[in-house]
Amino acid sequence: MNGFYMSQPSNRVFSGVQPTGNLHLGNYLGAIRKFVALQESHDCIYCVVDMHAITVWQDPAELVRNTREVTAAFIASGIDPSKHIVFNQSQVGEHAELAWIFNCVARMGWLNRMTQFKEKAGKDRENASVGLFSYPTLMAADILLYRATHVPVGDDQKQHLELTRDIAQKFNNDFSAQIAGFGHGEQYFPLTEPVIEGPATRVMSLRDGTKKMSKSDPSDLSRINLTDSADDIAKKIRKAKTDPEPLSDSIDALKARPEAENLVGIYAALEDSSKQAVIEQFAGKPFSEFKPALADLAVARLEPINSEMRRLMDHHDHVDAILANGANRAREIASQTMKEVREIVGFLGARAR
Ligand code: AQP
Fold first, then answer.
1. 215 in active site
2. pLDDT tens, position by position, 25-56
């Protein structure tokens, strides 16, 4: 088997965003903006995860549109598809193939503990798709297919990344004899590190500081969409729920005021500073002063992204070509991993394919 094994990359980033519409400030600050920053130091693979999207019903025509829109948001935010890989998941069939193998590695008990499934399935568990339940094994496959070492995500994905590590560990243990045959130590899949840092790892709803800003919130006032106009952004910030007190002078004092803490976190992330720096600037000031400053900052940061997204959406052949090219490059890595995985697992004919 020697010579067949693909060496483990030391700094490969993978992450994805679902094309489920209403891309919002939480997606931008919690994920996309970090994708952009990591391009300087890592080889990055950014994926529009359309196979994840269909774990809940998606109108097919909308899915196509939303896939282009997420791609446009990536590019408009500063991801460079000529240096890094940008593609949509369904163009690389190996994601589904590895997910099946991981379905056989992961345990029911592990998936039963996933809070995202419990939240999304709610009381109507019997009617949730099987895909929604096994979502985290597909996510593990997305990451480990490229043997990614780092995954930038929002705080809500932490548990899924722990599961990815558990799956990698169990695969490495279950097949240790075969993996050792490659002559490269015991670890085939890396234990991927989450990258969850900064002041906006969990951006909260503008209407309720205890709820995550979310694509599916029925109130459009709860979130700032990346497609919102400057006027809409200003209006939503003006209407954001707050309390009557002026801004606190310490981070500890903010903790009991979720709405205030959220707006301070958003300001800090948009300004690329810290909550502490924002507090020093605005301590004792009323929201009637803070909110217009936040609105100006948000518009200044988001307006250029918004207009470039619109331009790209008018040129969707260009967007589709970026995805096709990215998929070809992703497939080269993915097919190599799957060749090895098939052989490790004991699937006859693995080498011939
Ligand atoms: N509120 C948030 N704050 C910080 N990061 C967030 N992310 C999502 N919401 C926030 C991060 O964005 C990345 C892509 O998310 P996704 O498309 O996989 O899922 P989602 O936005 O959570 O959307 P859903 O699941 O379609 O719908 P909702 O929001 O209605 O539940 C991820 O890195 C995520 O952490």
1. yes
2. 999 999 999 999 999 999 999 999 999 999 99
Which of 20, 22, 27, 162 to mutate to test ligand 1, by most ligand atoms within 8 A of the CB atom?
27
Which domains, ranges and CATH numbers included, belong to the chain? Answer: 12-199+315-345 (3.40.50.620), 220-311 (1.10.240.10)
236 is catalytic: no
How far is it, in rounded angstroms, from Cα 104 to Cα 102? 5
Q: Which of 19, 123, 140 is nearest to 71 (CA)?
A: 19
d(CA 51, CA 48): 9
The predicted pLDDT at position 4 comes to 44
Counting atoms of ligand 1 from 1, which one is nearest the CA of 156?
A: 35
pLDDT digits (tens, 9 = 90+) for 104-134: 999 999 999 999 999 999 989 999 999 999 9
Q: Quick one: pLDDT at residue 321?
A: 98
Q: Tell me whether residue 30 is exposed, middle or buried, using C-beta atoms within 10 angstroms of its C-beta: 0 to 12, 13 to 18, 19 or more.
A: buried
pTM of the entire predicted model: 0.95
Give me the residue label for tokens 């906006």. Answer: 200
Query: Measuring from atom 23 of ligand 1, which residue has the nearest CA?
Result: 215
Decide if 235 is catalytic: no
